[in-house]
Write a structure and sequence with these properties.
Strand order of the largest sheet: 1-4-5-6-7-8-9-10
Distance between the termini: 45 Å
Number of strands: 10
Number of domains: 1
Radius of gyration: 20 Å
Largest sheet: 8 strands, parallel, barrel
CATH class: Alpha Beta
Structural class: alpha/beta
Length: about 325
């Protein structure tokens, strides 16, 4: 009688690597970068150990280091010098994100530069869109703002524009605006299934983007809903999204898997700030083996079906595996 022994294929590292079903390729990782308009705002982010806010010149230097390690995609977030109710600094052609896009593309033409598109870092109220007279986010007025920002990103040389606001119809509006502007080669990576999550806290510290009143549950997705996520993804694809995203990552691996099973477009997952901070806290206390925990986490995203992994661990992973 034949005894089946799957353990034969686990005997040593070479064998395990030979038969591994999924691998995290450095080329599939995206490193987020926070760029500040005022140099005095640069420096380490307390709630995200190992992550910093960069001045423009430092961001270019960091991009050079990432590229040398094999990380050839970055996602930019801007921290302006001033904010107001209508996010006017967001569409300034000389704004911090616009200048950073141009500087990185000039220094590293082959670096893929993605620009997050949202109003939350630029509004004094901290919401992702413009507010109406009753203090509610005005969906359609916000679409006009997003298109205006997107065109300045395209003019600066962005390869990918990544709307994260969760306004209805924004992908179609942005795609139409880009095409009419002649920016037909600029791709859209939509934050399609973006949940109203507790795991964004450290990011809001980093970007100074916490809402000053209320919360974002009126436009970001509700955690219990899975079918709605697939509907949001389908709508964004129909509106012209080139890449769709699930955010956060770890609590929503089921959504990544369901999206992979249903859709054929590239799927991104965002391993968000709270997930990063949570792991870093356990690692720093000696409760987890850091290298193994990071590898296992990133592998879980790929195994679930993600093609692109946006993660604050990208650089440290590449330093070991690049």
């Amino acid at each position: 009688m034949i005894v089946l022994r799957p353990r034969r294929l686990r005997r040593n590292q070479v064998m395990r690597e030979l038969v591994a079903e999924h691998r995290v390729g450095v080329e599939h990782l995206v490193q987020p970068l926070f760029v500040v308009e005022r140099d005095e705002d640069a420096g380490p982010i307390e709630s995200m150990p190992g992550i910093s806010r960069y001045s423009l010149s430092a961001a270019v230097n960091e991009a050079r280091e990432l590229f040398a390690l094999g990380i050839k995609s970055v996602l930019l977030f801007g921290i302006p010098a001033s904010k107001d109710a209508v996010a006017s600094s967001s569409y300034d052609k000389n704004g911090i994100v616009q200048r950073t896009i141009a500087a990185i593309k000039s220094a590293l033409p082959e670096m893929l530069v993605m620009a997050d598109l949202c109003a939350c870092e630029y509004t004094d109220h901290g919401h992702c869109g413009l507010l109406d007279s009753e203090g509610e986010v005005d969906n359609d007025a916000t679409l006009e703002l997003l298109c205006r920002i997107a065109l300045t990103y395209a003019d600066a040389g962005a390869d990918v524009i990544a709307p994260s606001d969760m306004m209805d119809g924004r992908v179609k509006a942005i795609r139409c605006a880009l095409d009419a502007h002649g920016s037909t080669s600029v791709a859209i990576m939509a934050y399609s299934a973006k949940y109203a999550s507790a795991f964004y806290g450290p990011f809001r510290d980093a970007a100074g983007s916490a809402p000053q009143q209320g919360d974002r549950r009126g436009y970001q997705m509700d955690a219990p809903n899975a079918r709605e996520a697939l509907r949001e993804i389908a709508l964004d694809i129909a509106e012209g999204a080139d890449i769709v995203m699930v955010k956060p990552g770890l609590p929503y691996l089921d959504i990544v898997r369901a999206a992979r099973d249903r859709f054929d477009v590239p799927i991104a997952v965002y391993n968000v700030s709270g997930e990063y901070a949570m792991l870093q806290a356990a690692i720093s206390n000696g409760w987890l083996d850091g290298d193994r925990a990071i590898d296992e986490t990133l592998t879980s995203f790929v195994r679930a079906g993600a093609d692109i992994v946006i993660t604050y661990f990208a650089k440290t992973y590449a330093q070991r595996h690049g």
